[in-house]
Amino acid sequence: MNEHEICIGFIALSFFLSLGIESILLPKIIFISQKKNLFDFPDNRKQHIKPVSRLGGVSFLPVLLLVLMIVQYIWCKITNYDANLIRNDTLSELVMLISGLLVLFLVGIKDDLVGVRYSKKFVIQFIASTFLVLSGIYINNFYGLFGIHEVPIWIGIPFSIFLSVFITNSINLIDGIDGLASGISGAALFTYGVLFYIGHQWTYSIICFTMLGILVPFFYYNVFNNKHKIFMGDTGSLSLGFLLSFLGIRLAMNVPGMPVSSNGAILVALSALFIPLFDALKVMCIRFYARRNIFQLDRNHIHHQLIDVGIPHRITMFIIILASILLTVTNLFALEYIDINIILGVDIFIGITFCRTIMYIKARKSKKKILFTTSSKNPKGTQPISEISSSILKNVKHENKNRQSN
User: Fold this and answer.
1) CA 182, CA 321: separation in Å to the nearest integer?
2) Quick one: CA dihedral 249, 250, 254, 257, positive or negative?
């Protein structure tokens, strides 16, 4: 067996091993949540109508680390410790990745159990993102985007920190309906995993497919198992968002041997996360324009707007995930023939047009609802009850005055 066949075998092992372990753990987490009453209770903004456990993300990091250690051990046994799956040049990167994940994992658990202010979460995300650049991973090339190619380190590092925090928050914000965050993240992980495999970045490819294996059973319980539903909570969304930001920035680095390094790796990496990134930016702009706190919760997210125009939750989720997959595949192939700036411009134009169309449909639907309600309360040719009551009251007062004057 050659090196590629061995790597495919380990990718498959990682995927199925994480899938099996997560499938065993999730029912246990749901059982503990029921015993300890650890639920996410519904309110006027949330979509669920009964209490649901929000501790699904608690298992993400432990299962990921467990599977990686098992795979590393098996790899060393097969090669008699002559070659490690984790090369020395990626060891420091993985150490910083795990450090950032642990920080967000801990703050996520606290937030799911007792709550954490958004300002504190923002600071923790910033700290975790500094671990990313300390490992040597940062955006070092724009590949012609905005006319920029090589990026100096003093620009690349702060930009990478900002991008990591923004990606982490965008995954957290898109987690508004069942299956949406895990579905988009799963599609992105599959894309990253394939590209890392083609670029001989075995370790990162295995990480991608290991996390994908974790998300598959979670997606089932979150979307299809109504009796034992579970949410990933902030523990899951923050950990998942940071992992995707790490992998995306690593993929976007101009590294010799990567298949997309010369064609616009930064666009490929961001295309897989374009919808959550665009949605987060749009929502923040709307809140800023309305002079509200940009972290204030509302129903301006794309999934909320689709639901408000009458599209069912599950169909909304599948529409957004399929749109994300289609955009990623289209951009990946278009890079061979079209300038990177034109592709980005078309993506943004489509996003703005789609959002404005949904807002227009929503406005027309609200207007028709108001007109229908008004007409049903005040049929043509009849006088409203409020006006009749007011007229009777005026007549009674007039009669009383006449009696007093007489």
Assistant:
1) 10
2) negative
Residues 298/289, Cβ–Cβ less than 8 Å: no
- The count of other CB atoms within 10 Å of the CB of residue 348 is 13
Say how far apart CA 270 and CA 285 lie, in whole Å: 20
**Residue 213 identity (one-letter amino acid):** G
- Check if the beta carbon of residue 221 is closer than 8 Å to that of residue 28: no
Instruction: Choose among 122, 99, 394, 140: nearest CA to 265.
Output: 140
Which residues contact residue 340 at a Cβ distance below 8 angstroms, ignoring those fewer than 6 apart?
A: 143, 144, 145, 263, 264, 267
Tens digit of pLDDT for each residue in 357-398?
988 888 887 776 666 665 555 555 444 544 444 554 455 455
In tens, the pLDDT along 274-317 reads 999 999 999 988 888 888 877 777 788 888 889 888 889 899 99
- Of 168, 22, 182, 52, give the one whose Cα is nearest residue 107: 168
Q: Which residues pair with 276 in a beta bridge?
A: none
Residue recorded with tokens 């795990």: 98
CA distances, 237 to each of 12, 50, 107, 206, 326 (Å) = 25, 21, 12, 20, 23
302 and 320 in contact (C-beta within 8 Å)?
yes
**Residues 59 and 231 sit within 8 Å (Cβ to Cβ):** no
Tell me the pTM.
Answer: 0.86
Mean pLDDT comparison of 91-100, 132-141, 319-328, highest-scoring range: 319-328
